Amino acid sequence: MKIEVIEEVWRELGKCEACGIRDLVLFADLNEDDFKLIHQPIVDLHFKPFQTLYRSEDSPDFVYTIRSGLVKLVNYSSDGRYRIVRLLGKGDLVGIEVLAGLPYAHCAEALEPLDVCRIPVSEVLRINRDTPRLHQQMLARWQKISSDADYWITELSTGQARQRVIHLLLHLASISDSDDFFLPSREDMGAMLAITTETASRMISALRSEKVLKVEDKNRASADLEQMRALLT
């Protein structure tokens, strides 16, 4: 894991404004005086696919803003099985539950090359206490968690397997910055959708045969989104 400490990037407003996702991050509404409240450096981290940001048993000292890439939040059972409860993408805050004084609720793992800013929880709490401008962004992120949870329950955890797979692919396309999108492994698809690996593989093969889905390589795909939405009606 490559680590680069950026000692001034959040302390100087000009550098923060130059960030490519300035409007999406937790500190989007802060001004120059607010950034002077930060005493510990924000750390820029790069993770390779399958690397872990944190485990549920780790000390809850940091939250992470995603600059690029995807993170999966995973619950592991004692028998080695796992369930993916949510995917997070650019601009999302990973580990937000620790800001409420809770431990990490899941294991957070990179699905693809990932760039994040690691923010000490103590800094977020200090800023939230000393300036009102963080409050709205915090509320927006809690609301997004609620909306995402509703989506995963209603669209990705119920209904026929084919519908679940299509909803997942449409979701992945919607959070992609390009014409193609990340395609999870069949094992991960099963863990997201509560279906078997074999069923996930069969559904993907069927969509490819129907010329709705095109797999570019092992982990990238493109789709006729209009046609794919029509399959849900």
Could you describe the 3D structure shown?
With 233 residues, the chain is of the alpha+beta class. The protein folds into two domains: 148 residues, Jelly Rolls (Sandwich); 70 residues, Arc Repressor Mutant, subunit A (Orthogonal Bundle), CATH 1.10.10. It has a five-stranded antiparallel sheet. A hairpin with a 5-residue loop joins strand 5 and strand 6.
* CATH architecture identity of the largest domain: Sandwich
**Total of domains:** 2
Could you name the CATH class of the largest domain? Mainly Beta
Using only C-alpha atoms, the radius of gyration works out to: 19 Å
Shape: elongated
Give me the number of helical elements. 8
Task: From the 3D structure, determine the CATH topology of the largest domain.
Answer: Jelly Rolls
The class by helix and strand makeup works out as: alpha+beta
Give the SSE layout.
Elements: E1 2-6, H1 13-17, H2 32-35, E2 42-47, E3 52-54, E4 62-68, E5 71-76, E6 82-88, E7 93-94, E8 107-110, E9 114-120, H3 121-130, H4 135-154, H5 161-174, E10 181-182, H6 186-193, H7 197-209, E11 213-217, E12 220-223, H8 225-230
Helix pairs in contact: 6-7
What keyword list fits this structure?
2 domains, 233 residues, Jelly Rolls, 5-stranded antiparallel β-sheet, elongated, 4-stranded antiparallel β-sheet, Arc Repressor Mutant, subunit A, alpha+beta
